[in-house]
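Hello,

I think I submitted the zinc ion job twice by accident. Can you confirm which output corresponds to this input? Input:
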Amino acid sequence: MTAARSEPRPAATILLLREAAGAGPAVPAAPEVFMLQRTSKAAFLPGAFVFPGGALDPDDASERALRRVRGLDDAQASARLGIPAGGLAYWVAAARECFEESGILLAWDEHDRPVPPERAAALESLRAPLNAGTLRFSEFLEREGLFVRAQEIAYYSHWITAASRPRRFSTRFFLACAPAGQQGAHDRSETVHSVWVSPRDALERGRRKEIELIYPTHSTLADLAAMRTPREAFEHARRLDEIEVNAACWALDHEGSLRLFRRADPPYYEIHWSDPEEKGDTCFVIQPGIAKRLDRLVTRITAPNPGMMTGPGTNAYLVGRRDEGGALAVIDPGPAIDSHVAKILEEGAGRSGSRIRWILTTHTHPDHSPAAALLKAATGAQVIGMPRPEHGHQDHGFAPDRVPADGERLQLDGCALRAVHTPGHASNHLCYLLEETRMLFTGDHVMQGSTVVINPPDGDMRVYLASLERLLALNAAIFAPGHGYLIGAPQREIRRLIAHRLAREAKVAAALQRRGPSTLEELVTDVYDEVSPRLHAVAMRSLAAHLDKLVAEGRARRAAGRYILSADERSAP
Ligand SMILES: [Zn+2]
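Support: Only one job matched these inputs. Its output is below.
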Protein backbone atom coordinates (compact mmCIF):
# COMPACT_ATOMS: atom_id res chain seq x y z
CA MET A 1 0.00 0.00 0.00
CA THR A 2 1.39 3.37 -0.93
CA ALA A 3 0.09 6.89 -0.56
CA ALA A 4 -1.09 8.61 -3.74
CA ARG A 5 0.36 12.03 -4.31
CA SER A 6 -1.05 15.25 -5.72
CA GLU A 7 0.74 18.57 -6.10
CA PRO A 8 0.08 20.92 -3.18
CA ARG A 9 -1.56 24.25 -4.05
CA PRO A 10 0.22 27.42 -2.95
CA ALA A 11 -1.57 29.19 -0.10
CA ALA A 12 -1.08 31.93 2.48
CA THR A 13 -2.23 32.11 6.10
CA ILE A 14 -2.12 35.19 8.30
CA LEU A 15 -1.49 35.28 12.04
CA LEU A 16 -3.02 38.55 13.17
CA LEU A 17 -1.99 39.62 16.63
CA ARG A 18 -3.22 42.35 18.92
CA GLU A 19 -2.69 43.28 22.55
CA ALA A 20 -5.17 41.75 24.97
CA ALA A 21 -7.74 44.19 26.33
CA GLY A 22 -6.83 45.62 29.70
CA ALA A 23 -3.15 45.91 28.88
CA GLY A 24 -1.49 48.94 30.36
CA PRO A 25 1.71 50.02 32.01
CA ALA A 26 1.17 47.51 34.83
CA VAL A 27 -0.30 44.67 32.76
CA PRO A 28 1.87 43.08 30.07
CA ALA A 29 0.30 43.36 26.63
CA ALA A 30 0.02 39.62 26.01
CA PRO A 31 -0.88 38.83 22.42
CA GLU A 32 -4.24 37.63 21.22
CA VAL A 33 -4.57 36.00 17.84
CA PHE A 34 -7.50 36.12 15.45
CA MET A 35 -9.08 32.72 14.78
CA LEU A 36 -12.01 31.49 12.76
CA GLN A 37 -14.12 28.40 12.98
CA ARG A 38 -14.71 26.77 9.63
CA THR A 39 -18.21 25.65 8.82
CA SER A 40 -19.01 21.99 9.31
CA LYS A 41 -19.94 21.95 5.58
CA ALA A 42 -16.47 23.12 4.45
CA ALA A 43 -14.68 20.74 2.12
CA PHE A 44 -11.35 21.41 3.85
CA LEU A 45 -11.02 21.06 7.64
CA PRO A 46 -14.73 21.25 8.49
CA GLY A 47 -15.40 22.62 11.97
CA ALA A 48 -11.76 23.32 12.80
CA PHE A 49 -10.49 26.51 14.40
CA VAL A 50 -7.95 28.04 12.03
CA PHE A 51 -6.19 31.27 11.20
CA PRO A 52 -7.47 33.27 8.20
CA GLY A 53 -5.96 32.12 4.93
CA GLY A 54 -6.48 30.35 1.63
CA ALA A 55 -5.10 29.43 -1.76
CA LEU A 56 -3.33 31.99 -3.94
CA ASP A 57 -5.52 33.65 -6.52
CA PRO A 58 -4.17 34.33 -10.05
CA ASP A 59 -4.83 38.04 -9.41
CA ASP A 60 -2.39 37.98 -6.45
CA ALA A 61 0.49 37.62 -8.93
CA SER A 62 -0.83 40.17 -11.44
CA GLU A 63 1.19 43.26 -12.32
CA ARG A 64 -1.64 45.34 -10.99
CA ALA A 65 -1.54 43.63 -7.59
CA LEU A 66 2.25 43.69 -7.33
CA ARG A 67 2.27 47.43 -7.97
CA ARG A 68 0.26 47.81 -4.77
CA VAL A 69 3.01 46.22 -2.62
CA ARG A 70 5.64 48.34 -0.95
CA GLY A 71 8.77 47.43 0.98
CA LEU A 72 9.79 44.27 -0.89
CA ASP A 73 10.24 43.44 -4.55
CA ASP A 74 9.52 40.04 -6.05
CA ALA A 75 13.19 38.97 -5.97
CA GLN A 76 13.49 39.78 -2.26
CA ALA A 77 10.16 38.18 -1.43
CA SER A 78 11.07 35.05 -3.41
CA ALA A 79 14.47 34.82 -1.71
CA ARG A 80 12.73 35.03 1.67
CA LEU A 81 10.42 32.15 0.72
CA GLY A 82 13.19 30.16 -0.94
CA ILE A 83 11.53 30.02 -4.36
CA PRO A 84 12.89 31.17 -7.75
CA ALA A 85 10.15 33.77 -8.44
CA GLY A 86 6.59 34.75 -7.63
CA GLY A 87 7.15 35.33 -3.92
CA LEU A 88 5.46 38.69 -3.65
CA ALA A 89 2.09 37.21 -4.60
CA TYR A 90 2.05 35.44 -1.22
CA TRP A 91 2.12 38.78 0.60
CA VAL A 92 -0.79 39.98 -1.53
CA ALA A 93 -2.66 36.76 -0.79
CA ALA A 94 -2.03 37.13 2.95
CA ALA A 95 -3.51 40.65 2.95
CA ARG A 96 -6.42 39.64 0.69
CA GLU A 97 -7.34 36.56 2.70
CA CYS A 98 -7.07 38.65 5.84
CA PHE A 99 -9.70 41.09 4.62
CA GLU A 100 -11.91 38.47 2.99
CA GLU A 101 -11.99 36.14 5.96
CA SER A 102 -11.56 38.44 8.96
CA GLY A 103 -12.71 41.85 7.69
CA ILE A 104 -9.46 43.34 8.93
CA LEU A 105 -7.92 45.51 6.26
CA LEU A 106 -4.19 45.04 6.44
CA ALA A 107 -3.47 47.94 4.11
CA TRP A 108 -1.91 51.37 4.24
CA ASP A 109 -2.60 54.62 2.44
CA GLU A 110 -0.11 56.40 0.20
CA HIS A 111 1.42 58.09 3.28
CA ASP A 112 2.01 54.66 4.86
CA ARG A 113 -0.72 55.19 7.45
CA PRO A 114 -2.75 52.09 8.40
CA VAL A 115 -6.44 52.05 7.53
CA PRO A 116 -8.39 53.50 10.48
CA PRO A 117 -11.31 51.46 11.90
CA GLU A 118 -14.03 53.79 10.53
CA ARG A 119 -12.72 53.43 7.00
CA ALA A 120 -12.36 49.66 7.33
CA ALA A 121 -15.98 49.53 8.51
CA ALA A 122 -17.09 51.60 5.53
CA LEU A 123 -15.32 49.21 3.14
CA GLU A 124 -16.73 46.12 4.87
CA SER A 125 -19.49 45.80 2.25
CA LEU A 126 -16.86 45.07 -0.41
CA ARG A 127 -15.89 41.80 1.23
CA ALA A 128 -18.84 40.04 -0.40
CA PRO A 129 -17.85 40.90 -4.01
CA LEU A 130 -14.21 40.12 -3.15
CA ASN A 131 -15.22 36.73 -1.75
CA ALA A 132 -17.47 36.12 -4.73
CA GLY A 133 -14.68 36.97 -7.14
CA THR A 134 -16.62 39.78 -8.81
CA LEU A 135 -14.18 42.35 -7.41
CA ARG A 136 -10.46 41.80 -7.66
CA PHE A 137 -8.30 42.67 -4.68
CA SER A 138 -5.82 44.52 -6.92
CA GLU A 139 -8.67 46.63 -8.32
CA PHE A 140 -9.96 47.29 -4.81
CA LEU A 141 -6.54 48.47 -3.56
CA GLU A 142 -6.05 50.63 -6.64
CA ARG A 143 -9.48 52.22 -6.39
CA GLU A 144 -9.05 52.98 -2.69
CA GLY A 145 -5.46 54.20 -3.08
CA LEU A 146 -4.23 51.51 -0.66
CA PHE A 147 -0.97 49.57 -0.47
CA VAL A 148 0.28 46.41 1.22
CA ARG A 149 3.38 47.22 3.28
CA ALA A 150 5.33 43.97 3.01
CA GLN A 151 7.74 44.96 5.79
CA GLU A 152 4.77 44.92 8.21
CA ILE A 153 3.86 41.34 7.28
CA ALA A 154 6.56 38.92 8.39
CA TYR A 155 7.02 35.50 6.82
CA TYR A 156 6.82 33.01 9.67
CA SER A 157 6.52 29.33 8.72
CA HIS A 158 5.81 26.86 5.94
CA TRP A 159 3.48 23.87 6.09
CA ILE A 160 2.78 21.30 3.39
CA THR A 161 -0.19 18.94 3.75
CA ALA A 162 0.87 15.29 3.70
CA ALA A 163 0.69 13.36 0.42
CA SER A 164 -2.51 11.33 -0.05
CA ARG A 165 -4.74 13.94 1.56
CA PRO A 166 -7.52 14.84 -0.89
CA ARG A 167 -6.63 18.56 -0.72
CA ARG A 168 -3.02 19.55 -0.34
CA PHE A 169 -1.67 23.02 0.31
CA SER A 170 1.80 24.43 0.51
CA THR A 171 0.98 27.19 2.96
CA ARG A 172 3.17 30.09 3.94
CA PHE A 173 2.24 31.51 7.33
CA PHE A 174 2.68 35.25 7.84
CA LEU A 175 2.48 37.25 11.02
CA ALA A 176 1.32 40.85 11.44
CA CYS A 177 0.16 43.17 14.19
CA ALA A 178 -3.49 44.04 13.57
CA PRO A 179 -4.12 47.70 12.70
CA ALA A 180 -5.27 49.57 15.80
CA GLY A 181 -9.01 49.56 16.41
CA GLN A 182 -10.06 47.09 13.70
CA GLN A 183 -12.00 44.29 15.39
CA GLY A 184 -12.62 41.91 12.53
CA ALA A 185 -15.50 39.53 12.01
CA HIS A 186 -15.94 36.25 10.19
CA ASP A 187 -17.57 36.15 6.76
CA ARG A 188 -20.55 33.93 7.70
CA SER A 189 -20.15 31.63 4.69
CA GLU A 190 -16.97 29.56 4.92
CA THR A 191 -16.58 30.33 8.59
CA VAL A 192 -19.17 30.40 11.37
CA HIS A 193 -17.40 31.87 14.34
CA SER A 194 -14.54 34.26 14.93
CA VAL A 195 -12.63 35.08 18.06
CA TRP A 196 -9.66 37.01 19.41
CA VAL A 197 -8.07 34.56 21.76
CA SER A 198 -4.83 34.26 23.69
CA PRO A 199 -2.76 31.38 22.30
CA ARG A 200 -2.71 29.81 25.77
CA ASP A 201 -6.51 29.88 26.05
CA ALA A 202 -6.90 28.44 22.57
CA LEU A 203 -4.55 25.58 23.44
CA GLU A 204 -6.41 25.00 26.70
CA ARG A 205 -9.77 24.91 24.89
CA GLY A 206 -8.26 22.51 22.39
CA ARG A 207 -7.01 20.31 25.21
CA ARG A 208 -10.52 20.27 26.70
CA LYS A 209 -11.87 19.29 23.24
CA GLU A 210 -14.06 22.41 23.13
CA ILE A 211 -12.47 23.39 19.84
CA GLU A 212 -10.72 21.36 17.17
CA LEU A 213 -7.15 22.35 16.37
CA ILE A 214 -5.25 20.69 13.56
CA TYR A 215 -1.54 20.05 14.00
CA PRO A 216 -0.10 23.17 12.29
CA THR A 217 -2.54 25.40 14.19
CA HIS A 218 -1.70 23.73 17.49
CA SER A 219 2.02 23.95 16.85
CA THR A 220 1.78 27.64 15.87
CA LEU A 221 -0.29 28.49 18.96
CA ALA A 222 2.31 26.78 21.13
CA ASP A 223 5.02 28.96 19.56
CA LEU A 224 2.95 32.12 19.98
CA ALA A 225 2.17 31.29 23.61
CA ALA A 226 5.83 31.93 24.41
CA MET A 227 5.66 35.52 23.10
CA ARG A 228 5.13 38.33 25.57
CA THR A 229 3.74 40.97 23.22
CA PRO A 230 2.52 41.16 19.60
CA ARG A 231 5.52 43.32 18.76
CA GLU A 232 7.91 40.76 20.24
CA ALA A 233 6.27 38.04 18.15
CA PHE A 234 6.56 40.19 15.03
CA GLU A 235 10.22 41.02 15.64
CA HIS A 236 10.91 37.34 16.31
CA ALA A 237 9.31 36.38 12.98
CA ARG A 238 11.17 39.10 11.13
CA ARG A 239 14.53 37.88 12.42
CA LEU A 240 14.04 34.18 11.61
CA ASP A 241 16.84 33.37 9.22
CA GLU A 242 16.07 29.79 8.20
CA ILE A 243 12.43 28.95 7.82
CA GLU A 244 12.20 25.24 7.32
CA VAL A 245 9.35 23.45 5.67
CA ASN A 246 7.04 21.27 7.78
CA ALA A 247 5.98 18.56 5.37
CA ALA A 248 4.27 15.70 7.16
CA CYS A 249 5.20 12.41 5.50
CA TRP A 250 4.09 8.81 5.40
CA ALA A 251 6.19 5.74 6.01
CA LEU A 252 5.62 2.07 6.70
CA ASP A 253 6.20 0.11 9.86
CA HIS A 254 7.56 -3.44 9.59
CA GLU A 255 4.08 -4.84 9.20
CA GLY A 256 3.36 -2.59 6.23
CA SER A 257 1.02 -0.11 7.94
CA LEU A 258 1.34 3.55 6.99
CA ARG A 259 2.12 6.10 9.69
CA LEU A 260 2.26 9.89 9.50
CA PHE A 261 5.39 11.72 10.67
CA ARG A 262 5.99 15.35 11.62
CA ARG A 263 9.19 17.30 11.66
CA ALA A 264 9.65 16.74 15.39
CA ASP A 265 9.61 12.95 14.90
CA PRO A 266 13.06 11.30 14.75
CA PRO A 267 12.59 9.49 11.38
CA TYR A 268 11.19 12.62 9.61
CA TYR A 269 14.30 13.72 7.70
CA GLU A 270 15.27 10.17 6.82
CA ILE A 271 11.84 9.50 5.33
CA HIS A 272 12.10 12.61 3.15
CA TRP A 273 15.67 11.77 2.14
CA SER A 274 14.96 8.17 1.21
CA ASP A 275 11.53 8.86 -0.31
CA PRO A 276 11.91 12.20 -2.12
CA GLU A 277 8.89 11.49 -4.33
CA GLU A 278 6.67 10.91 -1.28
CA LYS A 279 5.51 7.48 -2.40
CA GLY A 280 5.05 6.45 1.23
CA ASP A 281 6.76 3.12 0.54
CA THR A 282 9.82 3.47 2.76
CA CYS A 283 10.06 1.68 6.12
CA PHE A 284 10.87 3.87 9.12
CA VAL A 285 11.88 1.10 11.52
CA ILE A 286 15.59 0.51 12.12
CA GLN A 287 15.98 -3.26 12.25
CA PRO A 288 19.28 -5.04 12.71
CA GLY A 289 19.87 -7.45 9.87
CA ILE A 290 17.58 -5.61 7.42
CA ALA A 291 19.45 -3.41 4.96
CA LYS A 292 17.95 0.04 4.47
CA ARG A 293 18.48 1.73 1.13
CA LEU A 294 18.87 5.43 1.94
CA ASP A 295 19.53 6.71 -1.59
CA ARG A 296 21.19 5.62 -4.83
CA LEU A 297 24.65 5.65 -3.21
CA VAL A 298 24.14 4.60 0.38
CA THR A 299 22.68 1.55 2.17
CA ARG A 300 22.62 1.21 5.94
CA ILE A 301 23.05 -2.08 7.79
CA THR A 302 22.52 -1.82 11.55
CA ALA A 303 24.37 -4.25 13.79
CA PRO A 304 22.43 -6.36 16.35
CA ASN A 305 24.06 -4.57 19.32
CA PRO A 306 21.31 -2.31 20.65
CA GLY A 307 21.80 -0.79 24.07
CA MET A 308 21.96 2.28 26.25
CA MET A 309 25.13 3.53 24.54
CA THR A 310 24.39 2.27 21.03
CA GLY A 311 20.69 3.09 20.55
CA PRO A 312 19.18 0.71 17.97
CA GLY A 313 22.70 -0.63 17.22
CA THR A 314 25.79 0.55 15.34
CA ASN A 315 25.17 1.66 11.77
CA ALA A 316 27.42 0.33 9.01
CA TYR A 317 27.07 2.15 5.70
CA LEU A 318 27.69 0.64 2.29
CA VAL A 319 28.72 3.42 -0.11
CA GLY A 320 28.89 3.27 -3.90
CA ARG A 321 26.75 2.90 -7.00
CA ARG A 322 24.73 -0.17 -6.08
CA ASP A 323 22.85 -0.53 -9.36
CA GLU A 324 25.83 -0.17 -11.63
CA GLY A 325 27.90 -2.98 -10.16
CA GLY A 326 30.75 -0.75 -9.01
CA ALA A 327 33.17 -1.31 -6.16
CA LEU A 328 31.86 -0.41 -2.68
CA ALA A 329 33.17 1.04 0.56
CA VAL A 330 31.95 0.15 4.05
CA ILE A 331 31.99 2.91 6.64
CA ASP A 332 32.14 1.61 10.23
CA PRO A 333 31.89 -2.16 9.85
CA GLY A 334 30.77 -2.37 13.51
CA PRO A 335 31.22 -5.03 16.17
CA ALA A 336 32.59 -8.46 15.24
CA ILE A 337 29.24 -10.22 15.22
CA ASP A 338 29.12 -13.02 12.62
CA SER A 339 25.53 -12.42 11.48
CA HIS A 340 26.29 -8.72 10.99
CA VAL A 341 29.44 -9.38 8.97
CA ALA A 342 27.51 -11.93 6.91
CA LYS A 343 24.82 -9.35 6.19
CA ILE A 344 27.36 -6.76 5.04
CA LEU A 345 29.00 -9.38 2.79
CA GLU A 346 25.61 -10.37 1.37
CA GLU A 347 24.73 -6.76 0.54
CA GLY A 348 28.19 -6.16 -0.92
CA ALA A 349 28.23 -9.31 -3.04
CA GLY A 350 28.72 -9.02 -6.80
CA ARG A 351 28.51 -11.54 -9.65
CA SER A 352 32.20 -12.39 -9.38
CA GLY A 353 32.88 -12.14 -5.67
CA SER A 354 32.63 -9.29 -3.22
CA ARG A 355 32.44 -5.71 -4.44
CA ILE A 356 33.73 -4.35 -1.13
CA ARG A 357 37.15 -2.71 -1.75
CA TRP A 358 37.50 -0.28 1.12
CA ILE A 359 36.68 -0.46 4.83
CA LEU A 360 36.65 2.94 6.52
CA THR A 361 36.39 3.55 10.23
CA THR A 362 35.30 6.72 12.04
CA HIS A 363 37.10 5.64 15.25
CA THR A 364 38.13 2.51 17.12
CA HIS A 365 35.61 2.12 19.90
CA PRO A 366 34.61 -1.54 20.17
CA ASP A 367 31.17 -1.01 18.66
CA HIS A 368 32.58 0.56 15.46
CA SER A 369 35.71 -1.11 14.10
CA PRO A 370 36.24 -4.76 15.20
CA ALA A 371 34.41 -6.20 12.16
CA ALA A 372 37.05 -4.58 9.93
CA ALA A 373 39.44 -7.50 10.41
CA LEU A 374 36.74 -10.09 9.54
CA LEU A 375 35.58 -8.14 6.50
CA LYS A 376 39.14 -7.69 5.29
CA ALA A 377 39.77 -11.41 5.66
CA ALA A 378 36.68 -12.13 3.58
CA THR A 379 37.18 -9.51 0.86
CA GLY A 380 40.81 -8.38 0.82
CA ALA A 381 39.55 -4.79 1.09
CA GLN A 382 41.85 -2.01 2.23
CA VAL A 383 41.26 -0.79 5.81
CA ILE A 384 41.36 2.99 6.14
CA GLY A 385 41.27 4.86 9.44
CA MET A 386 43.38 6.30 12.21
CA PRO A 387 45.25 3.95 14.58
CA ARG A 388 43.75 3.33 17.98
CA PRO A 389 44.77 5.76 20.72
CA GLU A 390 46.48 4.74 23.93
CA HIS A 391 43.59 5.59 26.26
CA GLY A 392 39.98 4.64 26.42
CA HIS A 393 38.11 1.44 25.63
CA GLN A 394 39.48 0.63 22.16
CA ASP A 395 39.52 -2.13 19.52
CA HIS A 396 42.97 -3.55 20.18
CA GLY A 397 43.04 -5.60 17.02
CA PHE A 398 42.63 -2.62 14.73
CA ALA A 399 45.37 -2.23 12.12
CA PRO A 400 44.70 0.22 9.28
CA ASP A 401 46.36 -0.27 5.89
CA ARG A 402 46.18 3.43 5.29
CA VAL A 403 45.80 6.49 7.52
CA PRO A 404 44.04 9.34 5.73
CA ALA A 405 45.29 12.88 6.19
CA ASP A 406 42.79 15.49 7.33
CA GLY A 407 40.90 16.65 4.25
CA GLU A 408 42.18 13.79 2.09
CA ARG A 409 39.91 12.83 -0.77
CA LEU A 410 39.30 9.10 -1.13
CA GLN A 411 38.31 8.37 -4.70
CA LEU A 412 35.98 5.38 -4.77
CA ASP A 413 34.29 3.90 -7.82
CA GLY A 414 32.24 6.77 -9.25
CA CYS A 415 32.04 8.80 -6.04
CA ALA A 416 34.41 10.37 -3.55
CA LEU A 417 34.64 10.65 0.22
CA ARG A 418 36.57 13.35 2.03
CA ALA A 419 38.09 12.53 5.43
CA VAL A 420 37.56 15.17 8.11
CA HIS A 421 39.48 14.85 11.37
CA THR A 422 36.99 15.49 14.19
CA PRO A 423 38.62 14.64 17.54
CA GLY A 424 36.62 15.09 20.74
CA HIS A 425 34.53 11.96 21.30
CA ALA A 426 37.71 10.03 20.45
CA SER A 427 41.08 11.53 19.58
CA ASN A 428 41.26 9.44 16.39
CA HIS A 429 37.77 10.30 15.16
CA LEU A 430 37.09 10.95 11.47
CA CYS A 431 33.94 12.00 9.68
CA TYR A 432 33.55 11.32 5.95
CA LEU A 433 31.81 13.63 3.51
CA LEU A 434 30.26 11.99 0.44
CA GLU A 435 30.84 14.74 -2.12
CA GLU A 436 28.06 13.75 -4.56
CA THR A 437 25.18 14.18 -2.09
CA ARG A 438 26.94 16.05 0.74
CA MET A 439 25.94 13.31 3.17
CA LEU A 440 28.32 13.42 6.13
CA PHE A 441 29.03 10.16 7.97
CA THR A 442 29.44 11.40 11.52
CA GLY A 443 30.27 8.22 13.46
CA ASP A 444 29.93 9.11 17.14
CA HIS A 445 30.78 12.78 16.65
CA VAL A 446 27.06 13.49 16.19
CA MET A 447 24.52 10.84 17.17
CA GLN A 448 20.78 10.77 16.66
CA GLY A 449 18.59 10.53 19.74
CA SER A 450 21.26 10.94 22.40
CA THR A 451 24.13 13.10 23.52
CA VAL A 452 27.64 11.96 22.63
CA VAL A 453 29.70 10.84 25.63
CA ILE A 454 33.01 12.67 26.03
CA ASN A 455 35.15 10.42 28.15
CA PRO A 456 38.53 11.85 29.19
CA PRO A 457 41.41 11.52 28.77
CA ASP A 458 40.90 10.35 25.16
CA GLY A 459 37.67 12.32 24.96
CA ASP A 460 38.18 16.08 25.14
CA MET A 461 35.35 18.59 25.43
CA ARG A 462 37.36 21.57 24.26
CA VAL A 463 38.50 19.76 21.15
CA TYR A 464 35.00 18.32 20.63
CA LEU A 465 33.44 21.78 20.45
CA ALA A 466 36.14 22.96 18.04
CA SER A 467 35.41 19.90 15.84
CA LEU A 468 31.70 20.74 15.85
CA GLU A 469 32.52 24.27 14.70
CA ARG A 470 34.55 22.77 11.85
CA LEU A 471 31.53 20.89 10.55
CA LEU A 472 29.60 24.13 10.04
CA ALA A 473 32.00 25.05 7.23
CA LEU A 474 31.37 21.74 5.38
CA ASN A 475 27.81 22.70 4.56
CA ALA A 476 26.58 19.11 4.73
CA ALA A 477 23.08 18.34 3.44
CA ILE A 478 22.39 15.56 5.95
CA PHE A 479 24.19 13.60 8.66
CA ALA A 480 24.44 9.81 8.65
CA PRO A 481 25.32 9.01 12.28
CA GLY A 482 26.87 5.90 13.82
CA HIS A 483 23.65 5.36 15.78
CA GLY A 484 20.04 6.15 14.85
CA TYR A 485 18.31 7.81 11.91
CA LEU A 486 19.66 10.30 9.40
CA ILE A 487 19.80 13.78 10.95
CA GLY A 488 18.37 16.65 8.88
CA ALA A 489 18.95 20.41 9.03
CA PRO A 490 22.58 19.71 9.99
CA GLN A 491 23.70 23.32 10.44
CA ARG A 492 20.92 23.93 12.92
CA GLU A 493 21.72 20.65 14.67
CA ILE A 494 25.39 21.63 15.12
CA ARG A 495 24.43 25.00 16.56
CA ARG A 496 21.99 23.24 18.89
CA LEU A 497 24.68 20.82 20.07
CA ILE A 498 27.17 23.62 20.72
CA ALA A 499 24.56 25.63 22.63
CA HIS A 500 23.61 22.54 24.64
CA ARG A 501 27.23 21.93 25.70
CA LEU A 502 27.82 25.57 26.57
CA ALA A 503 24.63 25.64 28.64
CA ARG A 504 25.87 22.58 30.54
CA GLU A 505 29.23 24.25 31.03
CA ALA A 506 27.50 27.31 32.49
CA LYS A 507 25.65 24.96 34.84
CA VAL A 508 28.97 23.42 35.94
CA ALA A 509 30.44 26.85 36.65
CA ALA A 510 27.31 27.93 38.55
CA ALA A 511 27.36 24.75 40.66
CA LEU A 512 31.03 25.30 41.51
CA GLN A 513 30.28 28.89 42.43
CA ARG A 514 27.43 27.83 44.69
CA ARG A 515 29.08 24.84 46.33
CA GLY A 516 32.69 25.96 46.59
CA PRO A 517 35.40 23.28 46.17
CA SER A 518 33.61 20.08 45.09
CA THR A 519 34.28 16.53 43.95
CA LEU A 520 32.85 15.02 40.74
CA GLU A 521 30.41 12.94 42.81
CA GLU A 522 29.10 16.04 44.57
CA LEU A 523 28.73 18.01 41.37
CA VAL A 524 27.01 15.38 39.23
CA THR A 525 23.67 15.51 41.07
CA ASP A 526 23.60 19.31 40.75
CA VAL A 527 24.71 19.56 37.15
CA TYR A 528 22.75 16.58 35.79
CA ASP A 529 19.66 17.08 37.96
CA GLU A 530 17.36 16.29 34.99
CA VAL A 531 19.15 12.99 34.25
CA SER A 532 18.11 9.70 35.84
CA PRO A 533 20.53 8.73 38.67
CA ARG A 534 21.21 5.41 36.91
CA LEU A 535 22.94 7.43 34.18
CA HIS A 536 25.04 9.46 36.62
CA ALA A 537 28.08 7.19 36.20
CA VAL A 538 28.10 7.98 32.47
CA ALA A 539 27.25 11.64 33.06
CA MET A 540 30.22 11.87 35.42
CA ARG A 541 32.54 11.22 32.46
CA SER A 542 31.08 14.16 30.54
CA LEU A 543 31.17 16.25 33.72
CA ALA A 544 34.89 15.48 34.05
CA ALA A 545 35.30 16.58 30.41
CA HIS A 546 33.54 19.89 31.13
CA LEU A 547 35.73 20.44 34.20
CA ASP A 548 38.90 19.57 32.25
CA LYS A 549 37.89 22.24 29.72
CA LEU A 550 37.42 24.84 32.47
CA VAL A 551 40.83 23.86 33.93
CA ALA A 552 42.51 24.03 30.49
CA GLU A 553 41.03 27.48 30.01
CA GLY A 554 42.23 28.67 33.42
CA ARG A 555 38.67 29.09 34.63
CA ALA A 556 38.98 26.44 37.34
CA ARG A 557 41.69 24.38 39.02
CA ARG A 558 41.92 21.02 40.70
CA ALA A 559 43.41 20.37 44.11
CA ALA A 560 43.18 17.25 46.28
CA GLY A 561 40.42 15.70 44.16
CA ARG A 562 38.26 18.84 44.28
CA TYR A 563 37.50 21.38 41.62
CA ILE A 564 37.68 25.06 42.51
CA LEU A 565 36.46 27.96 40.44
CA SER A 566 39.19 30.49 39.69
CA ALA A 567 39.02 33.89 41.37
CA ASP A 568 38.21 35.63 38.04
CA GLU A 569 35.26 33.32 37.40
CA ARG A 570 33.90 33.85 40.92
CA SER A 571 33.85 37.59 40.54
CA ALA A 572 32.19 37.39 37.12
CA PRO A 573 28.55 38.47 37.24
ZN1 LIG B 1 32.46 5.89 20.09
